[in-house]
């Protein structure tokens, strides 16, 4: 899944939703023998992120530190405190002492896994141009990973009923369609060009919000999307690897991930994001199997597998398919974990920087030649996405503050 499943529309980041936390009475804690009143954190909605239209809780401090800070302490001599009457507090762990460093590590891991996935994915298409089958492999490896995780209880499998299944099927269908068409585009054109076209995704999200959901989109947001459209148009006109299959597939992927975001808002549930991700992957795998068998099955059996094995060998062929599936699953999972730790503004910047990383590394690794106009158009499109993301994050923050007031 595209990493936007990990943003508001997509990056194949998983649907998480947390129920509103009940309010708590102020808890008395002691600091240097003086009682201080500490209130429990507010609702999850305060400062959360949206991934696939779902609310995530920013982990500003670790659960271990919360336990230390919010646990009532009784600084009395009878309880064995020192002569000054100071309460003894356990030392903070690494995650609490260096939150910025830990968050930076999450971002680095997310980018690294995403770049490796895109590079390995394109290399496979260079000798095995069957995007429908490869899409199935991506999902199948992730599903096996989830099933093994359920078996060992990490995490424990959450039960699913028919009502939840009905809500998740449209989300999974849109996810499957977006994933397959992304891979068709990756196989047909340069990775950098596909990501440039997919930079139009915010435009489709805004259009869907305005004309389908009936939400009012500020003029400033529409104006910020103008550079995106102009930049993608400039890049497309002079892109050396341009073909209509790659371009149209990337556009269909944008539309699919937009509808995935719309349907995900209707599928809000208290189930944790890891279990939701697993169920979505299982359903999407079932959706992707028929077109892969019908469209590519005969060719694969006739000479597709044999040609790939003759070029790189059986061991490398199987190993490449396994690792591209693992990197696909892991980068989406880490993306979710990353976005849970940060505020919307950081989330927006992170997604734009991720796309820049992928485009830059793909050009360097594959040595794709781009014209000056393509380079300028790509830069304009990315700048437009950054502007749109920052403005939208700021507007959402203002809405949350207004509701809290």
From TrEMBL:
Q: Name one Pfam family in it.
A: TPT
The answer to whether UniProt assigns keyword ATP-binding to this entry is no
For this UniProt record, the keywords arranged alphabetically read as follows: Chloroplast, Membrane, Plastid, Transit peptide, Transmembrane, Transmembrane helix, Transport
Query: What are the GO MF terms of this UniProt record?
Result: organophosphate ester transmembrane transporter activity; phosphoglycerate transmembrane transporter activity
Identify the InterPro entries for this entry. EmrE-like, Sugar_P_trans_dom, Tpt_PEP_transl, TPT_transporter
CC terms in the record's Gene Ontology section: chloroplast membrane
- Every copy of the Sugar phosphate transporter domain together lies at 102-389
Q: How does it sit in the membrane?
A: Multi-pass membrane protein
Q: Where does the record place it? A: Plastid, Chloroplast membrane
Glycosyltransferase: present as a keyword of the record? no
Q: Which residues cross the membrane?
A: 98-120, 132-152, 167-191, 203-230, 242-262, 274-294, 314-331, 352-368, 374-391
Q: What is this protein called?
A: Sugar phosphate transporter domain-containing protein
């Amino acid at each position: 899944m595209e990493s936007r499943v990990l943003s508001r529309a997509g990056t194949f980041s998983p649907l998480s939703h947390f129920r509103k936390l009940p309010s708590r009475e102020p808890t008395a804690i002691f600091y240097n023998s003086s009682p201080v009143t500490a209130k429990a954190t507010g609702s999850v909605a305060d400062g959360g992120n949206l991934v696939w239209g779902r609310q995530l809780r920013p982990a500003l401090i670790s659960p271990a530190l919360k336990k230390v800070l919010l646990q009532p302490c009784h600084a009395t001599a009878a309880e064995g405190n020192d002569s000054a009457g100071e309460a003894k507090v356990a030392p903070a762990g690494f995650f609490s002492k260096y939150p910025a460093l830990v968050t930076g590590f999450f971002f680095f891991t997310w980018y690294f896994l995403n770049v490796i996935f895109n590079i390995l994915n394109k290399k496979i298409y260079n000798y095995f141009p069957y995007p429908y089958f490869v899409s199935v492999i991506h999902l199948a490896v992730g599903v096996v990973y989830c099933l093994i995780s359920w078996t060992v209880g990490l995490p424990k499998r959450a039960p699913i009923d028919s009502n939840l299944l009905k809500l998740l099927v449209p989300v999974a269908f849109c996810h499957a369609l977006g994933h397959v068409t992304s891979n068709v585009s990756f196989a047909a054109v340069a990775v950098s060009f596909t990501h440039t076209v997919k930079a139009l995704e915010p435009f489709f999200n805004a259009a869907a919000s305005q004309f389908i959901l009936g939400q009012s989109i500020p003029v400033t947001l529409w104006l910020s999307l103008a550079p995106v459209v102009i930049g993608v148009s400039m890049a497309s006109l002079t892109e050396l690897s341009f073909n209509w299959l790659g371009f149209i597939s990337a556009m269909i992927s944008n539309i699919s991930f937009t509808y995935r975001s719309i349907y995900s808002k209707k599928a809000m549930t208290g189930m944790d994001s890891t279990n939701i991700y697993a169920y979505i992957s299982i359903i999407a795998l079932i959706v992707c199997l028929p077109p892969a068998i019908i469209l590519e099955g005969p060719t694969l059996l006739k000479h597709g597998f044999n040609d790939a094995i003759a070029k790189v060998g059986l061991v490398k062929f199987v190993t490449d398919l396994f690792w591209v599936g693992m990197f696909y699953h892991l980068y989406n999972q880490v993306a979710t974990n990353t976005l849970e730790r940060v505020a919307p503004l950081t989330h927006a910047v992170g997604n734009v920087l991720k796309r820049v990383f992928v485009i830059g590394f793909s050009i360097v690794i594959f040595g794709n030649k781009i014209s000056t106009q393509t380079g300028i158009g790509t830069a304009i499109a990315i700048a437009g996405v950054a502007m749109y993301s920052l403005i939208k994050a700021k507007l959402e923050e203002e809405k949350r503050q207004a509701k809290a007031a």
